[in-house]
Structures are given as structure tokens and as C-alpha cells.
Design goal:
The chain is α+β, with helices and mostly antiparallel strands. The protein is built from 9 helices and 18 strands. A hairpin with a 2-residue loop joins β7 and β8. The two termini are 23 Å apart. The mean pLDDT is 92.
Length: 360
Amino acid sequence: MSQIERSYEPVTFADLPGWDTDDHAAALAAFQCSAQRLLDKAAVKPGSTTASPGLLVAAGLAAKTDPASARAFFETNFKPHRVAHNGPGGLLTGYYEPIIPGARERTEHYAIPLYNRPADLVNLVAESERGAMAHQYTHMRKTAAGQEPYATRADIENGALAGQGLEVFWLHDPVDVFFLHVQGSGVIALPDGSSARVAYDGKNGHPYTSIGRYLIDEGLFPADQMTLDALKDWLRANPELATGVLQQNKSFVFFRELMGDEAGSPVGVEEIPLTPGRSLAVDTGFHAIGSPVYVVAPTLTHATGAGGFHRLMVAQDVGSAIRGPERGDLYFGTGDEAGRLAGNTKHPGTFYVLLAGTPQ
């Protein structure tokens, strides 16, 4: 495949469909969440962020901006640009934070572990770049002889990490466990009525494989009926095949429990708190984390109504399947309704990136 080339074509805010009626204050609140993270990171380690100088200046101004001035803030500090490229057409999918029954101790009912990050797992790329580099190993195992590929999903499910004390929670349903890995965060509903929030804390480094695509390619599921709920139903209805299908995806995710104030919301890359309907996972090979991205998807009506989706989002997360200049994953929130919206999202979309300063 030839290398994808991307450029920016200047447009005006008047050219953005639905810009006048968007909730700019909601977009500002989401932008402020990542703005502070960018500033903190740049202060601790200058040059450690891919944010442009202009984006950092805008991040500093955001904290001083009140909601009533949100539209003026974006129109004053940014210029919109259409993302032009020679790659596949724009595609939007969705993700969410599931709520899953579980326990802190293994029982007969709760017998499938969620694992903490192993001590011998090393990053080959920054976590913010793992989506852009998802075609190659992103993590490996450190050994006395050097680095080697980490155990696959099948290896780990067959006991490769047993006896190391890495289990952080225990769950019941292998389908729930798999999709918690796909979503990257979740809420564990505990037997005593309390709950705990878990977040991504590394992966085994193997490239991600879509099991939905695998089923379609193998002729086991019709492409025009594929949704998240339909895929889950198929797996639960075919338990004799499900394990082998799930293990087609060699990628395996490790988790940590969020504690204190951090547990108030799910987090994206760089520990950025995610905002339902405003946080966007992007390919950081093309877009810097923290960038405002105006997303237009006229056929995406199940989340917003007949007018379609026209909304200013903020690049605050990444994903192994999110690759390309107009490939985005919309964060829908927590729970079953968010899951329904996310699972039914697979729509063409157009990106307009708001750039502060000179386009790169």
C-alpha cells in the first residue's frame, strides 16, 4: 500500500455544516480537560508532546475562558481546515464504557481474571502512538536475553500469567471480558452494590484483529447485519466456536483500578478525562492529541436525530483499530444505552481540524 499523504485545505467557520447550532460551551469544557494535561506535560518535559506551539498557547487561554465566550474562543484562536488525503474515505465508529458484574476475589461464578500490567512488559512506542503503530509490535516482554514478543491472548487465557498475582478483578462472562479489552475501560459492579472503575494500562503488543471482520470473511456472519450487539449474541449462541473466534485477536489488554478523584470518569490517552459525545479517538500519525476536530456525518442519525451528526470533538484518545486521517472513534459514555449507540455507529464522516498557528 502506498503511503497516505495528508494536507490541510483552509475553510471558514461558515463552511462547517451546523457550526452555528453546535454547543460550543460543551466543546470548550471537553477541550479544557485535555488542555491542562498538555500544559502539565510540556512543563514537566519540554518537547514531550506533539502539540504545536499554537495549540499550547490556546490551551493556556482555555482555562481563562468562560462558557459564554466558548464560540468566540474557538473562532479567535483557531482556523478550520478540511483534511485532504489519498487514503480511505472517512469512517466513524463508536466506543463506550461498559458496566460489568465482577468481584475482587475468585469464586465459582466469577472465575475469569482481569490482569494488572506485568512487570516485564515494556513499551516499544509511547502509549499515545500505539494506534498509529498498531500494524507492528507496540509492546514486548523484557528478558535477560533481550526483548521478545509477549504471550498472545490464547497463551494468557491458557495460563501464561498464572501464579504471578496479577489478577485485579474476576468476571463471569468471557464475551464481556473480551469487549472490555476492546473498549479499554469499564465499571466493575461488585456483589456488595459498590463499583470500581478500571482503565487501560498497557497491552501485550500484538496487532489488533477484528473478530467481526474474521466472522464475515469466514462466511459465518452476514456483513450487513454486523453490529456490536449482534456480534455478542452470536458469540453467546455459539459457545463451542466462541473461544477460537475470540482468540483470533492476539491482542490482550492489562488494566489498573482508578482511585480517588481519578475514578470520577474514564480516561483516554495521557490520562485525559473523557467526555461523552465530545471525546474522539484518532490516529496520532495524523492528528495531535488535544486538537479540536469538527466532525460531520449526515447519516449518523441514531445519536442526534434526523439532522445527522455535526459536532466539535476533541482528540483525546487512540485505538489499535483507529488508523487513517479521517478515521475516528466517538466516545458515547457509560452503560447500556451508550453501548447501543456505540455498537450501531459505523458511518462515513468528514473531518475539519481546527488548527492554531501554522498547519503542519
